[in-house]
Amino acid sequence: MLEYRNLKQRSLIMEKMWSGRFSEAASSLLDEFNASIMFDRELYQEDIEGSIAHATMLTEQGILNKDELESIKKGLAQVKEEIEAGEFTWELSDEDLHMAIEKRLTAIIGDTGKKLHTARSRNDQVAVDFRRYVLRKNKEIMSLIHALMTALHKVAGKHSETLIPGMTHLQHAQPTNFAFHLMAYGSMFKRDFERFEDSYRRNNISPLGCAALAGTPHNINRQSTANQLGFDSVSTNCLDTVSDRDFAIEILFNISMAMMHISRFAEEMILWSSYEFKFITFSDAYSTGSSIMPQKKNPDAAELLRGKSGRVYGNLMSLLTVMKGLPLAYNKDTQEDKEGVFDSVKTMEISLKILRESLLTLTVHEDNMKAACKVGHLSATDLADYLVEHCDIPFREAHFITGKAVAKSEELGIDLSDISYEELKAIDGRIEENVMPYMSIKHSMNARTSEGGTSTVRTIEQLAKFNSWLEENNSF
Predict the structure, then answer these.
(1) 290: annotated active-site residue
(2) Active-site residue flag, 390
(3) Based on CB atoms within 10 Å of each CB, which residue in 103, 133, 307, 394 is the most buried?
(4) Given 27, 233, 274, 290, the catalytic residue
(5) What sign has the CA pseudo-torsion 168, 174, 175, 176?
(6) How do residues 272-284 score in pLDDT, each as one tens digit?
(7) Are residues 442 and 175 in contact, defined by beta-carbon separation less than 8 angstroms?
(8) Which has the closest alpha carbon to 476: 132, 45, 146?
C-alpha cells in the first residue's frame, strides 16, 4: 500500500537519507514530483538480489563480517516476504524502491542495515536492477515468441495445399498456399526472437560497483557480484555505465518491431474474417459483440493487437527523446525510463498470448480461399511464362499477349483460368493445346519451385526447417 500522508509534516519530523547537507525540509510538492516509488517497486526482486550479492562481495573483501552478512540476508528475506504478502508500507517520502527497502531493512536489523550501501550508489543500484529486469523480460518474451511460432507452425502444417490468393497492392496477384503465407509471418517472428536473443547477449554486463560515476576507493570485487547475479562480465567504463539506457531502448525497439509484425498479421486476419473475404472465423472466445446490433461478431482482439503497436512506438520515442540531450553521467531525467518499458513489456506479453490463442482457435474456410483464387486472373503470369518457354516469344511480347487474353476473359465474364484453348488460339496462333495445364490455379501455385517459393513441396521444406529451428532454440 502506498501511503500519501501529510508530506509537509513528515518532511519536518523525518530526515531523508541524503538530508545531511540540507537545512530546509523538502517541499511536499517536490516529494510527489521527485518520487519514483509509485512504479519502480516493480523492481523489488532485482533490488533485493542485487543487495544480497553486494553484501556477499563486501564480506568476501573484509568490509563486512559474516554476522553482518547473515543479518542483512535475513532482513532482506523478511522485506521480500512483506512485499510479496502485500504487508510492506510504501511511502512517497522514501522517493524510490531502493530507499524504501534500505529504510525497512535498517528498521528490522538496526545499524548494520546502514552498512549495506558501502561502495554503492543509487546510480549503479538502479542500473543493475533495471538492467536485470530488462534481461529477465528478454528471456520471457523470447519464450512467448517461441510459443507463438510453435502455434503458427501447427496451424500452417495443415494447409500446405490450401490455395489462397497472394496479393500485391491488396490486389489478387498469384496463387499461393495458406501455409506459405503463415510461414512469412513465421520468418518475421524468427527475426524478432533473434533480436531479443542478440540484445540479451550484448547487454548482459554488470553495472554494479560503478558507484555514482567514477568507481569507488573501497577494495571491491565487481566480478564477484557479476558472477552471483548471472552477468557474463562487468562494464568497462563507469561513467558510461551509470548513464547508459541503451538496453532499455533496445527492448523498446525490439518490442516495437515485434508489435509491428503482429499488427500486420492482425490487419490481415481482420480482413480475412470480414464477410467480403470470409477466409477465417475467429472463435467466440476471442470476439466481441455489439451493444446495439445483435448480429455482430467483431474481431476486437485482432483490432487491439493492431492498435497497441502505436502505444509501444510512443514508449520507444519517449525514451529516445529523454536520452537525446543528456550530458554524462546520471541525470534525474532517466527516472522516466521505466514506466514506458514496464508498459511495453506488459503489452508485448499479453499480445503474444492473445495472438497465439486466436490462431489456435480460429476456423479456416478453405473453399472460400480457393474460390477467391478464381478472381483476378491469377494464372496470367503462368500463361506469359508458357509463351516464353514453349513458344520462344520474348517476355515483353508474351506480357502483351497475356494482357489480351485477360481482356478477352473480362469480356466473356470468366476468370483467365477458365478460358478455352480455342479463345487462346484465336489470340495468338503460336499457342498450342499443351498450354491448358498452365492455366490451372493449383498448377500455378505448384509451379513456384524455386527455393523459398510457394509450391507445396517448397512449403513443406520451409515447415521442416522452421520446425528444426524451433527444436534447436527451445531453451531460454
Answers:
(1) yes
(2) no
(3) 133
(4) 290
(5) negative
(6) 999 999 999 999 9
(7) yes
(8) 146
